TrEMBL record:
The keyword 4Fe-4S is assigned to this record: no
Protein name, as recorded: Cuticle protein
Transmembrane annotation, as ranges: 15-38
Keywords assigned: Cuticle, Membrane, Transmembrane, Transmembrane helix
InterPro entries for this protein: CHIT_BIND_RR_consensus, Insect_cuticle, Insect_Cuticle_Struc_Prot
Length: 272
């Protein structure tokens, strides 16, 4: 093997150096190298297997022996069990060539499913119908009523033990010695005395007097107005009456000055 690789390496270097080598020469050399490598592998002969066992073919009787003429038949059966809610049946009839029949079953929703079918050389044809209306009633299980077992209460004998008598303990009340402490004495203080201050005297001022001015009087208009309505003289008399009420006597200044002054109220400032 080592010699073959050495030969391949030498030929490859020779081809790389030579500028006249072509691709065809390189392929030929590679093929020769592959043949040389293959010739170094050991040759193993093809393993010999055991011969295939030869079993005789089974011999079946001729099919003609099972060909019978078609025979008519008919059957009918049904199952009805109210406790388990089973209600179904099947009925079929054949004349030897055509098979017709029907079967039914009561579904859990209350409907009745009926299938009518026909089978012949052309195939199987079925017609499915549903009778009734689907209902879904509430399931209320019914349980058998078993009588309540009556057990007699067990009678246990009462044990006869004498009632124990325990003596009542007598304890003398504990005597604690009285502590002899001197009674505390607290000092007595005299009642405090506060000085008495004289009541303050405030000066009285005379009541101020203000001058009185007479109410001004205005001259009455002398212009004559044309009376157009009967109610005008009534309005004029009312105005004259208002002016007469408004004119009062003036207040003299001497009367105001003679008024006595009003003294202010005195406050109590007695000492506590």
């Amino acid at each position: 093997m080592h010699q073959c690789f050495h030969i391949f390496w030498t030929l490859a270097n020779t081809i790389a150096i030579s500028s006249l080598a072509t691709m065809k020469q390189f392929v030929i050399i590679a093929a020769l190298v592959a043949v040389a490598l293959a010739s170094d592998r050991p040759y193993y002969p093809k393993p010999a297997y055991y011969p295939k066992p030869a079993y005789p073919s089974p011999a079946y009787p001729a099919a003609d022996g099972y060909d019978y003429a078609p025979m008519p038949y008919s059957f009918d059966w049904a199952v009805l069990d109210q406790a388990s809610y089973n209600d179904f049946g099947h009925k079929e009839t054949s004349d030897g060539n055509v098979v017709t029949g029907t079967y039914y079953v009561v579904l859990p929703d209350g409907r009745r499913q009926v299938v009518t079918y026909k089978a012949d050389d052309y195939g199987y044809v079925a017609d499915v119908k549903y009778e009734g209306e689907a209902t879904y009633p509430e399931y209320k299980p019914s349980y058998p009523a078993y009588p309540k077992p009556a057990y007699a209460p067990p009678a246990y004998p009462k044990p006869a033990y004498p009632t124990p008598a325990y003596p009542k303990p007598t304890y003398a009340p504990p005597a604690y010695p009285k502590a002899s402490y001197p009674e505390p004495s607290y000092p007595s203080y005299p009642r405090p005395s506060y000085p008495a201050y004289p009541r303050p005297a405030y000066p009285s001022y005379p009541r101020p007097s203000y001058p009185s001015y007479p109410k001004p009087s205005y001259p009455v208009s002398t212009t004559t107005e044309v009376v157009t309505e009967t109610a005008a003289p009534v309005v004029k008399e009312a105005e004259v009456a208002v002016e007469a009420v408004a004119v009062t006597e003036p207040v003299s200044e001497t009367a105001v000055a003679a008024a006595e002054p009003i003294a202010e109220p005195e406050t109590s400032t007695d000492a506590v």
